[in-house]
Amino acid sequence: MSRLITYFILFGLIVFFALILIRNLFPSERERVLRLIEKGRKAVEDEDITRIASLIDKDYYDAWGHDYQRLVKFLRNNFRIYDDIKVFVPFRKVVFEYPFAQCSLIVRVRGRSVVDGEDLIYASPLILFLIKENKRWFITAALQ
């Protein structure tokens, strides 16, 4: 009887780990988009402009008048001004219309100015538009 229980537990663990492995090897499109958002969040906190640029489509344009080059320049300038940047993205909703996706976020950013030590606090809803090209998602536009 105890051998049977051991087999059931072992079988359950194998199934559990197999499901986790399958989920990590074959993520859904929603999970891929949310991973992209998470990569972008971490890249901003790490002030890694190269990683941020790799997530943005070359045809990017946003509501503030930034294209790809202006956005990279804007971020580079802000990274010089602010340290200890923290980005919070508590709400995430993704809607797909293949090959496009729309991601609704609430973004809060905090940072400390290197000049006068004041805190930057930015909080706003943000809508990101994404496109899937060559099996990868890229951010193509942003609206507030």
Descriptive account of the structure:
The chain has helices spanning 2-25, 29-46, 49-55, 68-81; strands spanning 56-62, 82-97, 100-113, 119-133, 136-143. Strands 1-5-4-3-2 form a 5-stranded mixed sheet. Helices cover 44% and strands 42% of the residues. The protein is built from 4 helices and 5 strands. The protein has one domain (27-143): Roll (Nuclear Transport Factor 2, Chain: A), CATH 3.10.450.50. 12% of the residues are buried. Helix 2 (29-46) packs antiparallel against helix 3. The chain is α+β, with helices and mostly antiparallel strands. A hairpin with a 2-residue loop joins strand 4 (119-133) and strand 5. The protein starts with a helix and ends with a strand. The model has no long low-confidence stretch (mean pLDDT 90).
Question: What would the keywords be for this entry?
Answer:
144 residues; alpha+beta; Nuclear Transport Factor 2, Chain: A; five-stranded mixed β-sheet
